[in-house]
User: What shape does this take?
Amino acid sequence: MRRRHLTKIVATLGPASSDPAIIRSLFESGVDVFRLNFSHGTQEDKIPLIDAIRALEDETGRPIAIMMDLQGPKLRIGTFENDQITLETGAKFRLDMDDKPGTQDRVQLPHKEIFQALDAPTDLLIDDGKIRLRVDACDGTSADTTVVNGGVISNRKGVNVPGVVLPLSPLTAKDQSDLQFGLNQGVDYVALSFVQRAQDIADARRLIAGRAALLAKLEKPAAIDSLEEIVELSDVVMVARGDLGVEMPPEEVPVLQKRIISACRDAGKPVIVATQMLESMVNSPTPTRAEASDVATAVYDGADAVMLSAESAAGDYPIEAVQMMNRIIEHTEQDPLYRRIGDAARLDPDATAADAISAAARQVANTLSVKAIVSYTTSGSTTLRAARERPDVPVIGLTPSRDTARRLAIVWGVHSVHSADARDFLDMVENASQHVLTDGFANPGDRIVITAGFPFGTPGSTNILRIARVEAPGSRRR
Assistant: This one.
């Protein structure tokens, strides 16, 4: 099943998309990666979803990536005597550790770590920023505030503390339990929420111990201060614009999106743009023109993937949302301006043999009008380098590792294939020819570029660039 889009599609599964038939339709409509949100439901709920994805993978013969998205710490206020109150702008309001029901004057905030980190004047945001409180005074167990933006506040609404690094691990006890469950189920990506510092990534990587790739969700402004280090330590990065938009002024988010994408491109790491991309399609069969433009902007910016959340998990039109996103991507990528932007943003290769080979493969592919670049890889790093070049032709990633094949499903322009490694140079060409023919990338007699490492099967040894003619099956005998 050859995809026509280069920018990949991530779709979240949920109540609207839990049936195997719908999962299949989502995949056929263009989904490359399925996201399981562990903020909702139970571990047991995820088992049939994982089983359905793996059964679909076996049936179609196409690697499909599964991303588990950990919940992370949830900072919430307590409850009120009458379930809610109305705060007037300018009023005084107290947050404390007392578990008694809240009143018009106070409510519980059961997070000692917040009080330990607060310093007046600091703003606290409640209910996704609808309520803004200015801290006037604080100690280790309470904070006196003034209401800057008032409104209705009800039980257990979320709390954000912009501009403050909280002494909290991004992995709660629930997250650690979910993590072990997901790893035992064989997920391909672990998305880490509430990342504030590079150390958070290092700690999570130790727990994962190589059993899955690590995705850093950038949703806290504090993480931007360590952007380059976080990108370096992560396998993939997500621009989680929803939470960023709560804790930062909205006008800063588009600029930050471009900065994060640029940092990931520089480091050769895949990057996903997420949150509210086609939000109106939760209840409508068509998006707004602004939403279509938002998806196209992420594509023009060079994102590896774009993501659907509630649109595919809980919306009325999950399949239509994927189909729409696929059409927007394909139409954008056909624009000559898209290629010009990509060419202008192309990076110089690092001073390594693998980077030099990958850069040369793109140049040869462009000069000779070849049909595809075929990249033999074990860990996926060679194929990542080929994709970083943003060539004008598809990249076919051939790998003997099923895990690598699945992880490459998220990478821009890569058609990943689980395939035996080449035994010799003749086998290298025949195997590459077979896959480009089978998957519709070329016809007999067309030219392809092949990159590989010799001795074959040696990770990290990319040192071969071969220009070859695609051979029809059985056209050459050993």
